[in-house]
Amino acid sequence: MRKGNNYRGGRTNSDVQRVLSHIIMYDLKDPRIDPVRTTITKLEVTKDLKYCKVYISVLGDSDRKNDCIKGLESAKGFIRRELAAKLNLRNTPELTFTLDNSIEYGVEMAKKIDDILGSSEDSEEAEAESDVEDDEADEEKEEMSDSEEE
Fold first, then answer.
1. Predicted local distance difference test score (pLDDT) of residue 119
2. What is the pLDDT of residues 67-112, one digit of tens each?
3. From the DSSP assignment, how many helices (H) and strands (E) are in the chain?
4. What residues have CB less than 8 Å from 80, skipping those under 6 apart?
5. CA-to-CA distance for 83 and 23, rounded, in angstroms?
6. Distance from CA of residue 148 to its chain's centroid?
7. How far apart are CA 12 and CA 30, in angstroms?
């Protein structure tokens, strides 16, 4: 038996993801599924092609996300039939849709990092401004003391 990465498995995953994205974007007419806000982030097809776990990311609030998943679950039979028609696979996998929040998590973490970096830059700018003001005050004191000595 050959171990390691299976090229066919990776190619199957990418083919199924490409066709599934097309089906969601153009073929589904369910109003709960907004094709512009729905993205397939990851897809895993088992080696025997019986099951497929689809990770979906939906932009919007939690109600919109739940509605989209419910819409995809109700259209599962249609999606599977279209998948079988467009892909020549030995078996058409049974689809399981899972909500993926990794994109939103990444955006949230990026905002937090920007806030931290922004606050540290603000404090550095404030320190630099106070240093400039201190230097100017010191120069004025020196000028005053020089003028008094004369």
1. 79
2. 999 999 999 999 999 999 999 888 899 999 999 988 888 889 999 9
3. 4, 3
4. 92, 93, 94, 95
5. 8
6. 67
7. 27
